[in-house]
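Listing S7. Sequence submitted for prediction.
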Amino acid sequence: MLTQIGGKIESDFTQPLGMLSDCHKRIRYFLNALLATVDHANRGSLTPHQRTSLEAALRYFREAAPKHTADEEQSLFPRLRRTDTPEMRVTLEKIERLEAEHRKAELQHQEADAIVHLWMTEGGISPEAHARLTDILTELSELYERHIALEEAEVFPLAAVLLSDVEKNIVGREMAARRGIESNNSNFGSR
C-alpha cells in the first residue's frame, strides 16, 4: 500500500504493535479491492486493470497475510500467554478465538483464490461460482471486522501494557526476520 504524502507515517519494526495495526489497514484495503472488483466484473471477462487488482490482492493474502498471522501466533500471543495477570487470563479465551479465526480465514482465502484463478483461466465464471466467491468475501469482511476490532481494542492495548520494552523489541526483530530484514541496524534500538 502506498504511503500518502502528508499522511500518517506507518510504524516500523521498533513499534511492532503499530506494525500489526498497519497490517490491518492493508488487510482491509486488499479485501475491499477484491470485493469491489468481483462486484464490478460481474462474472464476465476481466479487464487488464481488474486482473491486476485481483492478482495484487490475492498475492497479498497468499504471501504477506500469513506473515501477519505468524507475527501474532508465534511472536505476540505466546509472550502474552506467559504473563500471569488477571487481565491476561480473561483475554486468553479471546486469543484462542482469534487463532481459530485465522484458520477459518486461511481456508476461505484458499477457496476464493481457487475460484478467481479459474475465472482468470477460463475468462469467466458461472453464476454459482460468482455467488460463492461473493459470499466468501463477504464472510471474510465480516470476520476481519470483528477480528481486527478485538485485537485493536483489547489485545494490542493489553500487550502494550503487559510486555516489556525488551519483549516488544524481540517481537519486532522476529517480525523483521520473517520478512528477511536484518534486525541489527539502526531501526532497532533498546526501546
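Caption to Listing S7: primary sequence and predicted C-alpha cells for the chain studied. The chain has one domain: 16-178. Residues 45 and 122 are 9 Å apart (CA to CA).
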